[in-house]
Structure formats: structure tokens, C-alpha cells
Amino acid sequence: MVHSDPETQREDLLRLLALLDDPRQTASELRTTERRWLRTAEQRLNLDGPSTLDTVTVRRATLAYRLLIRRR
Predict the structure, then answer these.
(1) Whole domain around residue 54: which residue ranges?
(2) 56 within domain boundaries
(3) Residue 25 maps to a domain
(4) How far apart are CA 69 and CA 35, in angstroms?
(5) Looking at the 3D structure of the chain, how many domains does it have?
(6) Do the Cβ atoms of 69 and 45 come closer than 8 Å?
């Protein structure tokens, strides 16, 4: 994540994760390098940190993230 406004980028990624209709399907299509990138982004995502997004969206994003980074 390289951005002039990392907090905005974090919120954008949370929104995108929450929009996934089927995170399990998406997870099955991820390359190892993509999964690795997501794992390294976890600290910057700060899933438990404050957000301008509503709690349902953050919860959906968190669940999708957890499914995406699971080892196969």
C-alpha cells in the first residue's frame, strides 16, 4: 500500500472487501502472491481500528478478509 492518504486507501480496501458476493469463490481464484500481499497488508488494514464505515460493512470486510487469507 503506497498512497498519499493511507487512511483513505484503507477505507477503500475495506469497502471493496465488503462488496465481495462470494469471498470463498474469490479465495479459490487468488494466486499465492495475491494471498501473501493481503496477509502483509493486515496490520495496515487495522481491522479492529476506528472507521468511518458502518459496523456491518466493516464486519463483512473482516469476514471476507479472513476467508481470503486462509491457507488452502
Answers:
(1) 6-69
(2) yes
(3) yes
(4) 6
(5) 1
(6) no
In a domain, 30, yes or no: yes
Name residue, grid cell 479465495.
27
**pLDDT at position 3, please?**
58
31, part of any domain: yes
Give me the residue label for grid cell 460493512: 57
- pTM, entire model: 0.86
Dihedral sign for Cα atoms in the order 54, 60, 64, 66:
positive
Percent of the chain residues past pLDDT 70, beyond the cut: 94
For the residues 27-50, what does the mean pLDDT come to? 93
User: Taking the CB of residue 14, how many other CB atoms lie within 10 A of it?
Assistant: 23
Phi first, then psi, for residue 27 (nearest 5°) are -60, -40
Q: Roughly how many angstroms between the first and final C-alpha of the chain, as a whole number?
A: 25
**How buried is 56 (Cβ within 10 angstroms: 0-12 exposed, 13-18 middle, 19+ buried)?**
exposed
Q: What is the CA radius of gyration of the chain?
A: 12
